[in-house]
Amino acid sequence: SAKRVPRGASQHVTAGPYSPVLEVDAAKLVVISGQGPLDDAGDVVGDSIEQQAEVTLENCRRQLAAADCTLADVFKANVYLADLAEWGRFNAVYERIVPEPRPVRTAVGSALLLGMKVEIEMWAVKPS
Is the peptide bond before 101 cis (omega within 30 degrees of 0)? Predict the structure, then answer.
């Protein structure tokens, strides 16, 4: 694999579904812009954080696939949530969809466009 968690890596017990550190063999990087829960017409899909997280992660998957990558190739994710109180509910969806070793991740509470509850940007390393 082009990414791995180094031996000796550790994180606090309250950590979510992410790796604390990854070593990446980055011969070819693929970076996607922030994806939200939008359909092709630009309309927000889903009322709950769970629905919006699923659509957003599917949009990420689709963009990565255009560059011959999958969610398994992602090593860095930035997550923007409109309501940090929905963090646990978002994590439940993320943990189900994003495979291990999970990307390193930063999460921020933020005002988002169009009434979106979540936006995600990702960095991946293209398999050789």
Answer: yes
